[in-house]
Amino acid sequence: MLKKIYLFIFILFITTSCSQKRHVVSLEPKIILPIQKIFSNSTSININIIDNRVKKFLSEINHNGKLLTINLSRDPTYLMKEVIEKQMIARGLKIKSPSHFNVFVQFNKLEAKIYEGTLHHNIIVNSSINLIITAPNGLIKTRSYTRKFSTQELLSANNIKIQNAVNNTLTDLISDMANDQEILDFINQNL
Known about the structure:
lipoprotein
């Protein structure tokens, strides 16, 4: 009888500790760099981050009657700063302060909506970023990048499936930024 009580307490302890586990999704998108080096390292830029996200977590999901918060393994604003720095260096620009150009990265949205049914789930990820570039002559160029990723699969959503959806979305967004010629044209025209 005593063994049954200890077994029950052990099982109760394990299930409650697992249900209170914080859900974290690893943020590891592929960083895509531009192919063409345009500038000769004499033009400099300064990069600033502005986090406009209303919710700092990725998602909330109702799982077995409990509201679970899904967080990211790292701050996506600093990830985007790192991405833009690498893309600008690949283009031949120098990162320093003070600089010729100021780049403001407005991180507006990174959220996932997760819907679970009895036999399948839907994951919809939305992301939005603005780049605002100010030239030495006072001119301003704004570029907006948005990506939406949607997937529907069998069974319930898990961290790996959510992670893949988020990283696919951000990889596509990063690719859009790497291939954007308008930023380079603006910097070239306002040197």
